[in-house]
Predict the 3D structure of the following.
Amino acid sequence: MIEIFGENEVDNVVITAHKLFSRDPGSKHWIHYPDVQGYLQEELAGAHRFLMDPAHRKLWEYCSEDLVNAIHSRNTEKVERIRERFADLGGAAHHRRDVT
């Protein structure tokens, strides 16, 4: 997961999930797998909605054979460059949506 999403994004998901689950009394000593699975499914659905927005169509250009090859060959530098370009464009697209 770290190789694909990057350490910062994985940290962000883990920290956010931990904060969410720490408020639940049932998660005092451990967090149940179905709860984590449900949380990750909600995050994935939100990301998919963001990418399916017609205003964000350009972001799909980063889901390329080049990215797949970089991931499979564990070319972390190339994955990082692609991730940064995606984040730059994705952040701009997200900001435009928030402003309008």
Remarks:
- Confidence is low (pLDDT under 50) at residues 95-100.
- The radius of gyration is 16 Å.
- DSSP finds five helices and no strands in the chain.
